[in-house]
């Protein structure tokens, strides 16, 4: 979804005259269907790989959801190779999405910086900065969770990092995207004025 949204921002800023032609209703429907189908395929692949594994010993997962890395720790068969293959494939697809997002924003920023009008630049930045904030938040928490060295024994930090990855980005998304809403801006302004008034007293 973040990749499709970055493409939408790219078309809106770099090809504004062709936006209605490129991002028509059928393109939006195909994008949504593509996201749903890719999510279903990903889920089916991971589920099939997990069911092909054999587990022995402790069946306790030290996490509040069944993460693939936790399954691999509990596996005592060669079936976990298929799970590693699925993870490698999905990691490669994620890398392609991140590369596409990076390419889109490179084009967007090069176009915005060439705009002669400061008002046009501000409008373009206000269009893409909420999405870019969500992308950075999601990728940074995801990388922090999956690229860190594994802990030998479970800890509270392990659970905290997982919460940062699974809970914080979806929780902050509505707030980040709502910052362009005038009513939300007015409420935030009142809150900050009240906080400043309380601090000055």
TrEMBL record:
Topology of the protein relative to the lipid bilayer: Multi-pass membrane protein
InterPro entries hit by this protein: GPCR_Rhodpsn_7TM (IPR017452), Olfact_rcpt (IPR000725), Olfactory_GPCR (IPR050516)
Keywords annotated in UniProt: Cell membrane, G-protein coupled receptor, Membrane, Olfaction, Receptor, Sensory transduction, Transducer, Transmembrane, Transmembrane helix
Annotated ranges, domain G-protein coupled receptors family 1 profile: 1-177
Main location: membrane
Membrane found in the keyword field: yes
PROSITE patterns attached to this UniProt entry: G_PROTEIN_RECEP_F1_2
One Gene Ontology term, aspect cellular component: plasma membrane
Name assigned to this protein: Olfactory receptor 14J1
